[in-house]
7-dehydrocholesterol reductase (Neopipo cinnamomea), 475 residues
Amino acid sequence: MAAHQEKKLAQERKHKPSQNDTQPSQGQWGRAWEVDWFSLASILFLLLFAPLIVYYFIMSCDQYQCSLTDPLRDLLTGNKHLSDIWNKTPTLTYRAAGIYCLWVAFQVVLYVFVPDFCHKFLPGYVGGVQEGAVTPAGVVNKYEINGLQAWIITHVLWFANAYYFHFFSPTIIFDNWIPLLWCANILGYAVSTFAMIKGYFFPTSAKDCKFTGNFFYDYMMGIEFNPRIGKWFDFKLFFNGRPGIVAWTLINLSYAAKQQELYGQVTNSMILVNVLQGIYVLDFFWNEAWYLKTIDICHDHFGWYLGWGDCVWLPYLYTLQGLYLVYHPVQLGAANAVGVLMLGLIGYYVFRVTNHQKDLFRRTDGNCRIWGKKPEYIECSYTSVDGTKYYSKLMTSGFWGWARHFNYTGDLLGSLAYCLACGFAHILPYFYIIYMTILLTHRCVRDEHRCSSKYGKDWKRYTAAVPYRLIPGLF
Ligand code: NDP
């Protein structure tokens, strides 16, 4: 695969601009160098309120049976004071700190010290040492892709404990959920602060650092592009996938175990949430090498947005459906359960096929078949910071001819299915689809802004050929 990617890079026909080359019309690409007031306001808002939002959601399940309005009503009517709610909130415990340290240390060991063996026996799986995308400074990093293996080992141990060893209860995550939240926050802030200091004093690749001069923006959006410790411990790959995404399925299993303990059964809605989100998580690890080419890894710098987001936001808010179902065990009728399952599977199919089409197209440099035909595309060029010119292609057929981000549309359909599994009694489980719609729409705009700077007039030709972003004919 590494050789394959080298070939792909060669196929991008890299060359230094000669006198005959026309000057590139586009500007610098990569994350912003200057901060506008709107970005700054959004960043300050998130830094102040994102941790409170997470606390509010988890606290309202713990103290108000997942009602988002009851805590506010209590506070506004004077029925309760902030201090009453705070005093009822579980504090950090030694037990939770021990569990969390063991968990993170175990994932570090699996990441750093256990080279991938899955690619040796799983046909079609791409693991082991792989190359990332070329960075704005022209660096190509190598990564040890062993996330699937880490996920399998972790889950085998989890089931072995649940059914055989009984060292700890499978409800352990649910039972320590708020104390674990404090641990996740400590790690999230520690790693983001460390990444900022590292960016200033000992960056891994100084040429790929960006300083806007605005402390808050740099803290949030990161300075270093690919901070590493040693040769292999890559912050972005580790925190993006583990511990948060490996934990995602374990958290859901812990919720299912809690339902079993409380009600003597696991409802079909809990099974649907476990299965549909399990497919999504497994897909992530099966395609971990492919994720090296996604925005998080190949465009975003590592700051609080990724560091804290991966430690706290993702494991706590992406698992709200399972948490809700512990407090409200919904048993869906057969037709509704099948409907939710179909919507989830269709969403997953669109998400996977769209992503696969782009991956195949880019890997083969367009020498492939999409829906039985040769793909259509627009030739485009871009320039890295050292002035090297590269050529690339933007596909305009398959799902990529329907909309410029049809993969996001599939993701949104799947997200809606998780929420619908919880019925309509409360808004809390619908947070996920609301958040994903905002995240992916904003991501669309952010990505297109970056692509427009990167490809200049070629990007205009592309948007003229594929005019819609998410929903053909509408948006
Ligand atoms: P994409 O995989 O869509 O990658 C966008 C990049 O692809 C662009 O920057 C451009 O990069 C290239 N590209 C754009 N259009 C074309 C085209 N027509 N042909 C070929 N290449 C093209 O986006 P993401 O990295 O954001 O998302 C990857 C997946 O991850 C998505 O399915 C998304 O739904 C999912 N996701 C899930 C999240 C979650 O929290 N659950 C969060 C974020 C993403 P280049 O510079 O190489 O041209």
About this structure: The radius of gyration is 23 Å. Residues 1-29 have pLDDT under 50 and may be disordered. The beta strands are 128-134, 140-145, 228-229, 233-234, 377-383, 389-395. The longest strand covers residues 128-134.
